[in-house]
Write a structure and sequence with these properties.
By secondary structure, the chain is mostly helical. It is 73% helix and 0% strand.
Length: 110
């Protein structure tokens, strides 16, 4: 399986076990521009001239429907989960502190 197929599988299945969100974000940032997408026309008009590996990779990525939107969703999902974990940690710390203050005030009254 080639790398572009692994990326396509990760995007279609929201599976980041093989390709991490960070890697997908980096790939998205260097993905093909509109000018580079002109490669499709070049391939059609010059089938005897193979593309180099990077151009072939960019061409394959451009053929994944809604590539940018899919990557954006995965990034949002990852960021959202990180934010939830951060909030949960803060709430747990606050709960611990409140319980500690309550325990100390109960002991002081006794």
């Amino acid at each position: 399986m080639d790398f572009s197929a692994e990326i396509e599988n990760a995007l279609y299945n929201f599976d980041t076990s093989v390709v991490s969100v960070e890697v997908l974000q980096q790939i998205y940032e260097v993905s093909a521009t509109k000018e580079e997408l002109g490669l499709k026309g070049h391939v059609a008009s010059h089938p005897d001239q193979p593309l180099d590996d990077l151009e072939q990779f960019l061409l394959e990525l451009s053929e994944i429907p809604h590539f940018g939107e899919r990557v954006a969703c995965l990034i949002f999902q990852s960021d959202f989960n990180d934010a939830l974990d951060n909030i949960a940690n803060k709430l747990n710390n606050m709960k611990f502190d409140i319980n500690l203050v309550h325990k100390n005030s109960t002991l002081a009254k006794a």
